[in-house]
Design goal:
79% helix, mainly alpha, 6 helices
Length: 131
């Protein structure tokens, strides 16, 4: 019979914090991938807590992982939701940028994107788009 190898509690805490840091980095590149990594980090952090408690070790890494991955999860959900909400406008912007051969044409594409999104988004959100 094969006995499963059990990782140390400290390794579980480190793994959870590294996953949450990776999720934080990934959310800026691919929000949906950051969402998945944040879920993995959250689960790893929650699973590391009892292991660390059993061995009377510091639970700071696991708690930090849970906090960071929860924030990343919230941010990636908002970013993914915004991408889905503005999917048509973003697709039109991408198509426009494919045909834009000059900087002026690229500026016109962005202006058209900003005008299209201004119809869907409140003015408070539009302030945070690039000028």
């Amino acid at each position: 019979m094969v006995t499963p190898v059990r990782a140390s509690a400290e390794a579980a805490g480190r793994r959870a914090i590294w996953l949450s840091i990776a999720a934080l980095a990934m959310v800026f590149m691919l929000p949906l991938a950051g969402l998945v990594l944040a879920l993995f980090a959250l689960v790893a952090g929650i699973r590391a807590l009892p292991l660390l408690r059993q061995e009377n070790k510091s639970r700071g890494t696991a708690v930090g992982s849970i906090v960071v991955s929860s924030v990343v999860l919230l941010f990636s959900l908002m970013a993914t939701g915004m991408q889905l909400y503005l999917m048509d406008e973003y697709s039109a912007y991408t198509e426009c940028m494919k045909g834009a051969g000059t900087v002026a044409a690229q500026g016109e594409c962005f202006t058209a994107f900003k005008e299209a999104t201004s119809q869907k988004l409140p003015p408070e959100v539009l302030r945070y788009l690039a000028p």
